[in-house]
């Protein structure tokens, strides 16, 4: 058999999971590790719904063979906060109505988080650029942009 | 998806010997943003048996200037090239081409080597489960000839295939007169794509790996520029793109290099336009004439005549930006 054991850090924990060469990271996260906040839209890298942060960068997990995550540090929406203690991005997306159907939201937030992790004071252009690989068919992006800049403010104030 | 084996290569020698072992039935995977989509959609009739990961080979993602040459490792990420200061100032067309490729997510994964080695994005070729057995796959027809050809070649076919090459960085590298070093040879980037064997796009043999891109340092009096026309600013492939490099002597053009892509089966260098510009000042009327000459031999298909005007406009814009 060509299956292998994949070892990587997922949301701060070391994970070992058996994967096939044909398994994509998005499938392993969703189907084997039950992290269904990772959404699957196009499956071809075009929509950004499956965005996770891998070694600090926002990437589309639907076109990453899981075996490429060997030794990597991966973060998903589940790892950044949740009920009880939301991440400032999660809070501002909810507070400012930057969510409608919600399908694009985990991917949007992970793209935005990768940006804010590197740059706490992004310009409007930098925010637009960071989420330019994420397609939202509901909101029209204006509120999303606002939510990201509000979260950036909160993060700066919190320091 | 059909089953395949996955190997993490630790050295180039190991990767080459694995390629030899599979004798044409294995592919290199770098960032995977092109090849994974092909596998997922079962695009090939005979699916390759193995993917050989070269991302695990250390030290292949450098960007460094040595003497009179810029050397770029095949695994340099597009996002890093897009933001590289040296590139932005001295090799502008390449930084801009990298910057305009795909989306930030894809640029964080996609490599320069993979960008120039990527396969066709023709929708007949790419349709899942090999539904159109086109010339590129050993079939007899090009379905774009009478079908939906709005994104196809405006300079005719090669071996009856009308699919264009989709790379954004290839025209920039050709305009910058880059060379490509492989595990077997060093060749001009302008000769990197071939038209003899319809089943492949570049000259690379099945056991050959691209190991470096070399760009001669442009003189002080040289500027370069890249422009891309696509439906959206992000994510989309070029409908037409163009890179120009102009070296000046006083206010006259000493040498001009122009390369269009997504207009022909391989990147397209309009030689007549380049020659015409030599010795001329870059004025509106000279760039207009250059653009006319560049598109003089165009033979648009039923649905893509519009690409001619776009190509002309990109040639003019890039040339004028070099002033
Ligand atoms: C949504 C989306 C949008 C895109 N938009 C654009 C766009 O606008 N412009 C554009 O130019 N591209 C675009 N692309 C294509 C994108 O795949 C490439 O830009 C990317 O650079 C490919 O690099 P990679 O490392 O991921 O290649 P891979 O997928 O790893 O490899 C691609 C091909 O090159 C071969 N290869 C890779 N490295 C080497 C090497 N060193 N030696 C020999 N062969 C090698 C592989 O075997 C494979 O056949 C897009 C892709 C997606 C998914
Ligand atoms: S599902 Fe991965 S980019 Fe669309
Ligand atoms: S909220 Fe529905 S797709 Fe973005």
Automatic annotation (TrEMBL), chain A:
This is Nicotinate dehydrogenase small FeS subunit. GO terms for molecular function: 2 iron, 2 sulfur cluster binding; metal ion binding; nicotinate dehydrogenase activity. The keyword Manganese does not apply. Residues 4-80 form the 2Fe-2S ferredoxin-type domain. Keywords: 2Fe-2S, Iron, Iron-sulfur, Metal-binding, Oxidoreductase. InterPro entries: 2Fe-2S-bd, 2Fe-2S-bd_dom_sf, 2Fe-2S_ferredoxin-like_sf, 2Fe-2S_ferredoxin-type, 2Fe2S_fd_BS, Beta-grasp_dom_sf, Diverse_Oxidoreductases. CDD domains: fer2. Its EC number is 1.17.1.5. SUPFAM superfamilies: 2Fe-2S ferredoxin-like (SSF54292), CO dehydrogenase ISP C-domain like (SSF47741). Pfam families: Fer2, Fer2_2. Gene3D superfamilies: 3.10.20.30, [2Fe-2S]-binding domain.
């Amino acid at each position: 058999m060509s299956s292998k054991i994949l070892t990587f850090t997922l949301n701060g924990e070391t994970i070992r999971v058996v994967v096939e060469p044909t398994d994509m990271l998005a499938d392993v996260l969703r189907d084997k590790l039950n992290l269904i906040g990772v959404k699957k839209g196009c499956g071809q890298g075009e929509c950004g719904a499956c965005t996770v942060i891998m070694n600090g960068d926002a990437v589309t997990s639907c076109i990453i063979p899981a075996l490429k995550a060997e030794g990597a540090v991966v973060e998903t929406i589940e790892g950044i906060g949740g009920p009880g203690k939301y991440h400032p991005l999660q809070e501002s997306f909810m507070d400012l109505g930057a969510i409608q159907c919600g399908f694009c939201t985990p991917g949007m937030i992970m793209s935005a988080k990768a940006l804010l992790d590197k740059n706490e004071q992004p310009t409007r252009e930098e925010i637009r650029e960071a989420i330019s690989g994420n397609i939202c068919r509901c909101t029209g992006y204006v509120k999303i942009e606002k939510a990201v800049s509000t979260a950036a403010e909160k993060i700066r104030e919190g320091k | 998806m059909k089953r395949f084996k996955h190997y993490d290569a630790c050295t180039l020698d190991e990767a080459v010997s694995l390629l030899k072992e599979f004798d044409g039935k294995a592919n290199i995977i770098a960032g995977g943003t092109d090849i994974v989509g092909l596998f997922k959609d079962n695009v090939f009739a005979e699916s390759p048996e193995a993917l050989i990961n070269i991302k695990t080979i250390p030290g292949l993602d450098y960007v460094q200037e040595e003497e009179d040459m810029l050397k770029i490792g095949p695994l340099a990420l597009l996002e890093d090239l897009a933001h590289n200061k040296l590139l932005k100032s001295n090799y502008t067309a390449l930084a801009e081409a990298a910057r305009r490729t795909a989306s930030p997510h894809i640029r964080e994964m996609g490599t320069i080597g993979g960008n120039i080695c990527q396969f066709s994005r023709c929708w007949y070729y790419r349709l899942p489960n090999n539904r159109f057995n086109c010339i590129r796959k050993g079939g007899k027809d090009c379905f774009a000839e009478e079908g939906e050809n709005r994104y196809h070649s405006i300079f005719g076919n090669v071996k009856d295939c009308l699919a264009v090459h989709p790379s954004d960085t290839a025209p920039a590298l050709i305009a910058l007169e880059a060379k490509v070093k492989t595990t077997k040879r060093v060749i001009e980037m302008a000769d990197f794509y071939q038209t003899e064997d319809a089943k492949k796009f570049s000259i690379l043999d099945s056991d050959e790996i691209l190991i470096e891109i070399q760009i001669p340092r442009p003189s002080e009096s040289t500027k370069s520029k890249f422009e891309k026309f696509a439906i959206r600013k992000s994510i989309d492939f070029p409908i037409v793109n163009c890179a120009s490099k102009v070296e000046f002597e006083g206010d006259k053009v000493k040498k001009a290099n122009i390369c269009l892509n997504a207009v022909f089966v391989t990147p397209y260098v309009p030689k007549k336009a380049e020659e015409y510009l030599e010795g001329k000042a870059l004025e509106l009327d000279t760039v207009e004439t250059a653009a006319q000459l560049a598109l003089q031999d165009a033979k648009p298909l039923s649905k893509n005549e519009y690409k001619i005007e776009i190509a002309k406009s990109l040639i003019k814009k890039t040339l004028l930006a070099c002033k």
